[in-house]
Amino acid sequence: VKEGSSAAVKMFERLVPEKDTRSHATGPYGDAYAICYPEGDTEKTKLAGEIIEALWMYDDIIEALPHDEAALEHATVEQILAGNKNETAPGRKTLMTSIFRDARDRMMALDPKGSPWMIGVLRQYLTEYDGNDKTYNDIEEYATFRTLNVGFRIMSGFMQWTTDIYLNKEETQLTQDFYIASGRVMALTNDYWSWEMEKKESVDRSAGIRNAIPVIMKQFSLNEQDAKIFVKGLTVDAEERMWKLGLDLMGLDLKGSETIKKYVDAMILLMGGSGFWSATCPRYNTTQK
Q1: Domain boundaries, the chain
Q2: pTM summary value
Q3: How far apart are CA 243 and CA 133, in angstroms?
Q4: DSSP-derived secondary structure for 60-112
Q5: What parts of the chain have a pLDDT lower than 50?
Q6: How many CB atoms lie within 10 A of CB 241?
Q7: 197-222: per-residue pLDDT in tens?
Q8: What is the CATH number of domain 2-285?
C-alpha cells in the first residue's frame, strides 16, 4: 500500500521540484491508508492511497492561489476525472494535473462496477470544494465547512470502494446521521492534532489558518491552551455521538442490514485509523521545514 502513496510523492517532487513536498501518509507505525483501510482490497487500497495522497498534495500547492484560480484548477481535475483529458491548456498546471489523467482508467480496470460511483464522489468533492477566505467566528458554522473541506467525503468514499460496501437509497438515508457525525469527528480530530504544525507555518490567505482552535479562541475569548482543551472536548463528544449512532445501526433488524453493519465497522476503523495516524505522524508532531 505504501508504494501507492510514495508514487504520488515522487511524482510531485518531479513535477514541482521547488515545492517542499511533505507526505500525508508517512507515520512511525505504517502507511496512513493501510491503517485507515485495513480490510480493503490490497490493490484498490494501494491505488486509493496514490490518488488521495496526490489530491492532498495538490491541495497544498493550490491553497496559495487566489480563490478563483484555485477553483479553476479543481474544475480542470474534475473534467479529467470525467474523461475529458484534452481540455487543459499547456503549461505547468497541466503537469500538476497530469497525475490524475489515468486515475479514472486505473480505477475502472480494478472495479468496473463500483468505480463510476467513486469517480462521482471525487468529482463532487472537486465541484463543492470551497477554498474561500471567509473568517469563521462560530464553531458550528466552521465545523460544517470543515467537515466538507477536510476531505471526509473522499476518505469515506474510498473506504467503501476498497471494501466493496455500497449502500442503496434506503441504507444511505438510514446511515445519514452516522455519516455526518463521522465527518465531524474527522474534522475536529484533524484540527486538534494539526494545530501545532499549522500555527508555525506562514499562511498565504487573508482568513488565516483553517482550524477550530483559533475559532474557539475568538468566539469564547479563550487563550490557546484553553481553546485546545475545548476542541479536545468537542472531539470526544463527537466521537461518543458517532459511536452511539453506530451502535444503534448495528442493532437494526432489517433485511440487508449486514451491509449497514459492515459499513459501520469500516467507518469506525477509518475514524480510528485517521485519529491514530494524526496523533503519531511526523507531519503533525514534529516540526518540519
Answers
A1: 2-285
A2: 0.85
A3: 33
A4: HHHTTS-HHHHHHHHHHHHHHHTT-TT-S-SSHHHHHHGGGTTHHHHHHHH-T
A5: 89-92, 95, 204-207, 288-289
A6: 17
A7: 888 875 544 446 789 999 999 999 99
A8: 1.10.600.10
